[in-house]
Amino acid sequence: MVTTASTLLDSQARPGSMDDRRAQMYPILTDAQLDELSTHGSEQTFARGELLWDVGDRNTCFYVVLEGELEIVRRDAFGNDTVLVVHRRGSYAGETSLLSGRAAMVAGRAGAHLHVLSIPVERLRELMVTHAQLGELIMRSFILRRVRMISEEVSDLLLVGSRHSADTMRLRDFLTRNAQPYKFFDLETSGDMCALLSRCDFGPDDTPLVITSKGEPLRNPSLRMLANRLGLSQTLDSQKVHDLAVIGAGPAGLAAAVYAASEGLDVIVVDSVAPGGQAGTSSKIENYLGFPTGISGQALAGRAFMQAQKFGAQIEIPARLTGLHCGNPFHELELDSGERVRSRTVVIASGARYRKPTLERLGAFEGAGIYYGATYLESRLCHGQEVVIVGGGNSAGQAAVFLSEAAEKVYVLVRSEGLAASMSQYLIRRIETTKNIELLTFTEIVELRGTTQLDGVRWRHGKTMQETSRPVRHVFIFIGAAPNSDFIAGSIATDENGFICTGSEVTRPEAEQPWLLSRPPFPLETSCPGIFAVGDVRATSTKRVASAVGEGSTVVQFVHQALSRGSV
Questions:
Q1: Contact 301, 501 (CB under 8 A)
Q2: Which of 79, 128, 244, 382 gives a 20 to 30 Å CA spacing to 564?
């Protein structure tokens, strides 16, 4: 299995020995801390062998052991139990899924006569906010426990498929970016698994195959089906009206969720894939304030995701938006599941995606040789091989440097005369000093070759017209930006490229849709009152992670003003 435990860990846990780490993972609360907790819950007693919760249960309580033993149990598809850890007085159960409301991956069982303090999750969130030191201790332990589950493959979720399959990559990316532990068996290297599939009447055509902890086989499931089976998604209340709905869980959306939820607003966030957005596929961001050694996009997203849940934001993933309907007194989000979300205000933070070059058969190789992000998963595929990076921006530079650690050779193709106009100087210098990176200017790909997967490319120099063919099986594309704004379908004003207009842009005489209120639009407000846009999807925004976070936090003050007027 490919694990990205370090992406969750690198900015959450303090450095130290393994003994220090275990002490942070399984701290023992003092009597004074137990007294602090006692006012937030009620005491319960369980007989030996009695379950406090089972695998798959949602919205369980936070259990603190006062007397006896609480066993954390892993249960496989055949009903076999393995005790992972035993909690005694002063210790407690729980990890990140407790805050998110996702299904439990382990069971809790009384190992002996057990006396516990039971605290509902809502009271736990309140406690983590009002008792900062205790809240920090609990949050760190939750994250480290999830890291352990990922790194030690504490999961009976199996994924079988070819590492060269686009659908296999789709499922691996979803599970990895959502920090869901799983075991991966590659058909190219796992002969025993192929034999087992055959004995179970499955063949290569049935892959990618997901086998849940209950033994249920899912043949190439959609992300929503997989999320439903794993208990990652939740049933939405279509009659509830939220204070704020955030579209997109990238840096801008998560920033809006954290600030709004921390200020007492009822917040729901919807995203189609995973926290982090486009930034979540970045191997390392080195110019983000406060992280002198850099931070991966996934780690940054993981921190923000946990913060939002700590303050009570509801985050629904995967949930693809198919329509946005402006209204008064509330707006309505239509999801691909058929569910609807109602909210008094909306922040569109759906981001942007990389544009696609006009190349024959490009779509056939997406996920099977053509990629739009360079994470740990993709780097494993490129080990010892030649790769091509298309693009001259910071994302392309970060990908080139990252992949050069695994690839034999990295070609960076740009149509311009160099990188100075579009890439940060520190990345340019790093590319220049990395021996296995070669910059090819005035160059673009003209042909992709292969059958079911990419096995070669041909590129052309724009001035000499000289062409070169190489047996490259992995091409990473980072060219331009196209807005993820298809769902607005003309209901909100955009510029000629589809980016959403905000603020004074929507009151220009030539504006696509007239502003109908007597008050002027708030900064970051769209042509529909009460709907705001932030981050890369917004016209005139600076396409940087820091800018997206800044806009996501800033927009909350305008959300408050819109809500305070009673009618937006």
A1: no
A2: 128
| DSSP-derived 3-state class of residue 418 | coil
Residues 119, 211: one domain? no
**Structure confidence by residue, pLDDT tens digits, 128-140:** 999 999 999 999 9
> In this structure, what token pair is assigned to residue 84?
């992972």
DSSP string, 96-164: HHHHHTPPPSSEEEESSSEEEEEE-HHHHHHHHHHSHHHHHHHHHHHHHHHHHHHHTT----EEEE-TT
Query: Can you tell me the distance from the alpha carbon of 267 to that of 261, in angstroms, rounded to the nearest whole number?
Result: 6
Q: Which residues contact 136 (CB under 8 A, 6 or more apart)?
A: none
Query: Please, are residues 499 and 350 in contact by the beta-carbon 8 Å criterion?
Result: no
Alpha carbons 373 and 357: distance in angstroms, whole number: 15
Q: Residue 325 belongs to a domain with what CATH number?
A: 3.50.50.60
Strand partners, 528: none
Number of domains in the chain: 4
DSSP annotation of 499 reads P
Q: List, for residues 166-214, the tens digit of each pLDDT value.
A: 999 999 999 999 989 998 988 888 767 666 676 667 777 788 999 887 7
Average pLDDT of the residues in 243-248: 98
Give the end of a domain, one of 108, 128, 149. 149
Side chain identity, residue 343 = S
C-alpha to C-alpha distance for 196 and 166, rounded to whole angstroms: 23
Is the distance from CB of 257 to CB of 267 less than 8 angstroms?
yes
Domain holding 83, by residue range, is 5-149
Which of 149, 184, 201 is a domain's end point?
Answer: 149
Within this chain, do residues 145 and 15 fall inside the same structural domain, yes or no?
Answer: yes
Residue 266 pLDDT greater than 90, yes or no? yes
Distance CA 474, CA 386 (A): 7
Same domain, 490 and 346: yes
466 & 389 share domain: yes
pLDDT at 13: 37
| 13 and 109 within one domain | yes
Q: Does 306 lie in the same domain as 415? A: no
Residue 170 lies in a domain: yes
End-to-end C-alpha distance for the chain, whole angstroms: 49
For 20, the token pair is: 């220090």
- Any idea what the CATH number is for the domain that residue 90 is in? 2.60.120.10
Asked whether residue 89 falls in the same domain as residue 224, the answer is no
Residue with tokens 């990140």: 96
Same domain, 346 and 490: yes
* H helix and E strand count, the chain: 16, 28
Calpha distance 263→345 (Å, rounded): 15
**Which pLDDT score is estimated for 14?**
39
pTM comes to 0.91
